[in-house]
């Protein structure tokens, strides 16, 4: 994902159709959003006010007032993005951004948008306000009006989804192994070396996973987690890590900021793995 993300952030285009599965396109959108709204030199820098705000709370941009996700609504038997929702976006886009560094609108399942809604958005894509971006996420780009597709860039995540899923599995399994057996911290160096060009993706998966562990530890509610396919493992880790999950979550965010600030990647990851391996017995439930 990193190469396509960097290309999109460096592009002068203000809108993209992003093709792929729901989870992968949304993960891409949130990483793009953090970089798009970043005020630092390297994007995302991880330390500017915008990046810190984006990472706060659930860490998915929900606390950032200039990052807006639009989801299909269900008034009849089928959920869709209706013209009324697009008109709300048009009104919001005309307003000054809160942090004065632009706004990003992300449309989930944009192929469900009604023809009236798509035509309304077309006018905005033709004459977008300054520093305003749009991501149209979809599994079926052919369902989007040709006029919209012709005015947008196109990003196909399909080729990378399988590779991303393999990396996600390795990243989440790594947390489990290192947290339960500190000796694994030394064995994990091999993976860090193998994936040195994708360490930001590794940390993104770790952040999402630990956020889920923290949610389950605090609430016991598996319905509120993002990584539902890892539900049993997350429940086990919530019981095992206890309150230390909050410290580990902050450590991953700190390692992410180190790497985004061009600190030596290997040293940042070794520090993080030692943090996991140093989980005290008294913290383990």
TrEMBL record:
Reactions accelerated catalytically: DNA(n) + a 2'-deoxyribonucleoside 5'-triphosphate = DNA(n+1) + diphosphate
EC number, UniProt record: 2.7.7.7
Name of the protein described by the UniProt record: DNA polymerase III subunit delta'
Keywords in alphabetical order: DNA replication, DNA-directed DNA polymerase, Nucleotidyltransferase, Transferase
Family matches, as PANTHER family: DNA POLYMERASE III SUBUNIT DELTA (PTHR11669:SF8), REPLICATION FACTOR C / DNA POLYMERASE III GAMMA-TAU SUBUNIT (PTHR11669)
Organism: Aedoeadaptatus coxii
Class of enzymatic activity (EC top level): transferase
GO molecular function annotation: DNA binding; DNA-directed DNA polymerase activity
GO cellular component, as recorded: DNA polymerase III complex
Domain DNA polymerase III delta subunit C-terminal positions: 167-276
Gene Ontology BP annotations: DNA-templated DNA replication
Keyword Transferase in annotation: yes
């Amino acid at each position: 994902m990193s190469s396509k993300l960097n290309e999109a952030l460096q592009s002068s285009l203000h809108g993209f159709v992003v093709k792929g599965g729901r989870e992968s396109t949304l993960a891409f959108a949130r990483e793009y959003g953090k970089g798009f709204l970043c005020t630092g030199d390297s994007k995302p820098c991880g330390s500017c006010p915008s990046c810190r705000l984006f990472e706060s709370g659930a860490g998915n941009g929900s606390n950032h007032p200039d990052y807006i996700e639009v989801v299909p609504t269900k008034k009849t038997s089928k959920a869709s993005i209706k013209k009324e929702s697009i008109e709300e976006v048009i009104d919001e886009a005309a307003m000054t951004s809160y942090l004065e560094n632009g706004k990003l609108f992300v449309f989930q399942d944009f192929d469900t948008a009604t023809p009236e809604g798509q035509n309304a958005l077309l006018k905005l894509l033709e004459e977008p306000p300054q520093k305003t971006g749009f991501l149209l996420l979809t599994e079926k780009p052919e369902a989007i009006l040709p006029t919209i597709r012709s005015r947008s860039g196109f990003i196909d995540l399909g080729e990378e989804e399988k590779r991303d899923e393999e990396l996600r599995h390795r990243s989440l399994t790594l947390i489990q192994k290192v947290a339960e057996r500190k000796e694994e911290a030394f064995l994990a160096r091999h993976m860090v070396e193998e994936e040195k060009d994708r360490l930001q993706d590794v940390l993104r998966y770790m952040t999402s996973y630990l956020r889920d562990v923290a949610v389950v530890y605090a609430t016991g509610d598996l319905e509120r987690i993002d990584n539902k396919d890892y539900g049993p493992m997350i429940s086990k880790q919530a019981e095992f890590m206890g309150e230390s999950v909050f410290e580990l979550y902050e450590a991953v965010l700190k390692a992410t900021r180190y790497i985004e600030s061009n600190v030596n990647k290997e040293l940042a990851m070794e520090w993080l793995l030692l943090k996991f391996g140093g989980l005290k017995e008294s913290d383990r439930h």
